[in-house]
TrEMBL record:
Pfam families recorded: Peptidase_C15
Protein name (Swiss-Prot/TrEMBL): Pyroglutamyl-peptidase 1
One Gene Ontology term, aspect cellular component: cytosol
Organismal lineage: Eukaryota, Metazoa, Ecdysozoa, Arthropoda, Hexapoda
GO annotation terms (biological process): proteolysis
GO molecular function, one term: pyroglutamyl-peptidase activity
Annotated keywords: Cytoplasm, Hydrolase, Protease, Thiol protease
Superkingdom of the source species: Eukaryota
Record bears the keyword Transmembrane helix: no
Keyword Protease among UniProt keywords: yes
Amino acid sequence: MDVDSECTILVTGFGPFDKYVVNASWEAVKELQKLWINSKEFLDIELVIEEIPVSYSYVSTQIPQLWKKHNPTIVLHVGVAGTAESLIIECHARSNGYERLDIDRKRPDETNIEYNILKTGIDVKELCDNVNKNCEKHKCGACLSHNAGKYLCEYTYYQSLTIEPTKTLFVHVPDFNKYSSIQTAKGLYDILCYLIRNLKCN
């Protein structure tokens, strides 16, 4: 498809790391794609999904490339949080403090990086309220967070926020013991519906 002539939504999930041999974020994103295809609600909107390795170097080089390749109207990054009880909508991301090693046993070089906080331009409070309003339908609640964890999730969020904060969102999802993949996917679908309406995706 010609991504320059239609609305494209990019959704990413993460690959395995630590105890998460199967990452709930990527499993939910795959289910989201199935919901998207089967719903036929947004036939003029292309949904692109990408699995992101838990690697700082991969994120720093490939996230800008994904933006360039797909020219997305919306970018939704999804990651797993083991302590999450619902969907966690992240409000901002920080440039520094990434001390935890990735799957390559590496961390980013922050020597010449000035500390900065970037906020999403999306109205996260209204979005969160909207998800909770629809909670009975998809059995998936949401809350807001101001701490995205200073690991690959927040690092990825920051990379996209530097490109276009008005189109970028990060959502942490619970592990399988709290929500099933399809349950999480329904909540993510609801989030995309809100974003499409409010970002005038066309």
